[in-house]
């Protein structure tokens, strides 16, 4: 990474990194006004070519966590991406679009106990290629979203959905199949 690019990356974003981690940010990634927090041991953050992030809060907290943003992803302001707790992964495929205020979390953030034992372990999240998460969508732990899916405004995804699905609601339910989408809006 050249000096100018590195300076811009550091000047416009906030990094809080404790410990030794693997960070791979492609040289042409656009990342502005983001907050990146990494704590623990041996975590991996990957941002592939042509990714574009603005005002995003990213956290990897735990050991051996992975957060990967695929090639050409666009992630809007107010989004929160969290790979939290040992060994969890949050994987975004290529060409995904996350609108404003989208939350994607591998953990509940707090323990829920029954008879003194935790009953809500963290689980990885896998989001396929060309997935569109509309404004204020929440994706909870353990969800897998297939390729070419759309999740509607203000929806909460608690279960996995197959490729080519449209899901909406709280909790989100599949309302259509066999779709795809494009970035351009034709008039």
Average pLDDT, all residues:
94
Largest sheet: 8 strands, mixed
Low-confidence stretches: none
The level-1 CATH class: Mainly Beta
CA(first)-CA(last) distance = 40 Å
Q: Major sheet: order of its strands?
A: 3-6-9-12-17-20-22-23
Number of DSSP E strands:
23
Number of domains: 1
Structural class by sheet pairing and helices:
mainly beta
Task: Please supply descriptive tags for the structure shown above.
187 residues; eight-stranded mixed sheet
Task: Describe, in plain words, how this protein is organized in 3D.
With 187 residues, the protein is mainly beta. The protein has one domain (3-107, 120-176): Hexapeptide repeat proteins (UDP N-Acetylglucosamine Acyltransferase, domain 1, 3 Solenoid), CATH 2.160.10. Helices cover 5% and strands 42% of the residues. It has 1 helix and 23 strands. It has one helix spanning 3-11; strands spanning 14-17, 22-25, 30-32, 35-41, 44-47, 52-54, 57-63, 66-69, 74-75, 80-84, 89-92, 97-98, 103-105, 113-114, 117-118, 125-127, 132-133, 138-139, 144-145, 150-151, 156-157, 166-169, 172-176. The strands form 4 sheets. An 8-stranded mixed beta sheet has the order 3-6-9-12-17-20-22-23, with no helix packed on it. A 7-stranded parallel beta sheet has the order 1-4-7-10-13-18-21, with no helix packed on it. Strands 2-5-8-11-16-19 form a 6-stranded parallel beta sheet, with no helix packed on it. Strand 14 and strand 15 (117-118) form a beta hairpin. The longest helix is centred in the N-terminal third of the chain and has 9 residues, at 3-11. The N and C termini lie far apart (40 Å). The mean pLDDT is 94.
């Amino acid at each position: 990474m050249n000096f100018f690019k590195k300076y811009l990356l550091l000047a416009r974003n906030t990094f809080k990194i404790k410990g030794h981690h693997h960070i791979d940010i492609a040289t042409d990634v656009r990342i502005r006004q983001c907050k990146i927090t990494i704590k623990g041991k041996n975590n991996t953050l990957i941002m592939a070519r042509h990714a574009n992030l603005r005002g995003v809060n990213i956290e990897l907290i735990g050991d051996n966590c992975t957060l990967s943003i695929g090639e050409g992803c666009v992630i809007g302001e107010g989004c929160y991406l969290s790979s939290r707790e040992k060994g969890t992964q949050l994987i975004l495929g290529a060409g995904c679009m996350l609108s404003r205020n989208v939350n994607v979390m591998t953990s509940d953030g707090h323990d829920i106990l029954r008879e003194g034992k935790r009953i809500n372990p963290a689980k990885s999240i896998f989001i396929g290629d060309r997935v569109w998460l509309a404004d204020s969508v929440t994706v909870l732990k353990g969800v897998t979203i297939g390729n070419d899916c759309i999740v509607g405004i203000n929806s909460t995804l608690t279960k996995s959905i197959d490729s080519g699905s449209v899901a909406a609601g709280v909790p989100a339910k599949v309302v259509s199949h066999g779709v795809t989408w494009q970035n351009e809006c034709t008039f």
